[in-house]
Amino acid sequence: MTKVASVIHWFRLDLRLHDNLALRNAINEAENRKQILRPIYVIDPDIKNRVGCNRLRFLFQSLKNLDTSLRKINTRLYVIKGKAVECLPKLFDEWHVKFLTLQVDIDADLVKQDEVIEEFCEANNIFVVKRMQHTVYDFNSVVKKNNGSIPLTYQKFLSLVSDVQVKDIIQISKSVSDECKGNDYDSQDYDVPSLEEFGINESELSECKYPGGESEGLKRLDVYMAKKQWVCKFEKPKSSPNSIEPSTTVLSPYISHGCLSAKLFYHKLKQVESGSKHTLPPVSLMGQLMWREFYYTAGSGTKNFDKMEGNSVCTQIPWKKNDAHLKAWAEGKTGYPFVDAIMRQLKQEGWIHHLARHMVACFLTRGDLWISWEEGAKVFEDYLLDYDWSLNAGNWMWLSASAFFYKYYRVYSPIAFGKKTDKDGLYIRKYVPELKKYPSEFIYEPWKAPKGVQKTAGCVIGEGYPNRIVDHDKVHKENIQKMNAAYKINKEKKAMKRPRQ
Ligand code: FAD
Question: What whole-number distance in Å separates Cα of residue 392 and Cα of residue 306?
């Protein structure tokens, strides 16, 4: 008996039904040829060693939501446990797969995987359709328009896309016919796993502030787009890094996982801005989305974008290893309450404001600790709900003045910066509760409080809260000199490489 062939849509960073052309292609193919449709997600059991618990929870919630939505259109999500390059070839054979659709992703690990899978598909007559749907613009076309090189400035990027028409998004509304259902449709073997199966006790995790999933992402988008005045007046530098409730949208976890389409966000923003006076890029909300596009374009066209060595846009800086300082920074125990509050919020909630990211990234690298941005990026990869390969690397390079931004002498003060928007340190009191009884005048610099004040506040520095691991006033000046020297060497090296006239 000949087996009925299957069509697969492989979900990765596109955990949604809206604006998912690759999924629609798979559905149409299955319907037209009366084949079995199997939308899959592959989860590597090793993921728990690479991804923090909060992000894993967000991912599993998103998968559950995706499965629910797929069932509403008479199909389901098949979750496969294993390494994609090992389990997919076997499954393709078992399911007699003839057609595979997926989204174009640029994360270096996914690209490597794709090469192996595509090679297998080619050798086995499996037709592959890949769709560019994670960004507003097709980054390959942007690079092509720039004569094959990546635009190195945001303004240049904006000029390249200024006349590009952004297509409308597509919706999937029709149900899949019964003929396209596999006989394993009801099998629990492919159900979305629980966190417990991955060794995580959900009750031990902190409160879930940002639940994962397309439904949550769309809801959040609607809430923000309904605030027309807020959107039109949005200026990122004026938003607060240390407000207790977020001062920006927190759409990032949804966009990064593909629960929310960047293109849908773009069209909604255009509608809200239309006919009204509104702020402009780089500070507007549209400007934020364009930063994402900018980094995607840069990341897609640069080899080793997430590394210092072998990365053509990254200045080589002789960072030093210091495991004790890195640990203190990651755990929020540097002795600088503002830095520690940010890192603890990150660890607990999985999201921090952009300017808070500026503060801690500058502190780790060129500001205070002189540790490589690659180390910081790894910690962010672990903790951030919105972790994104290109945005994380691109922004870390920016903050460490390794690429895109070069005013290395502008250093964030761990004392003055937070005071601008929260002089009483309410944010610090929330995330560093050992200091919550400190008088406002000492909340950013508790080491300056007299011993008696420290005792009355119930926390002696060096006992209940750490001493500062470095003296900012001293080290940041030394680091500016080191940056200066590194820039000089890089400039000389570049000059030597240039051909003589
Ligand atoms: P909003 O201000 O509401 O902006 C809306 C959307 O625009 C965001 O959801 C995001 O998709 C995009 N966006 C905003 N700011 C930026 C930016 N600077 N660069 C690129 N896109 C932007 N963002 C991630 O999504 N993933 C990351 O891994 C990540 N790592 C970062 C690391 C460092 C060191 C720094 C400084 C920034 C990083 N960012 C990252 C960028 C930025 O901080 C977040 O996108 C933003 O804070 C998310 O919050 P929001 O959704 O409320 O943003």
Answer: 8
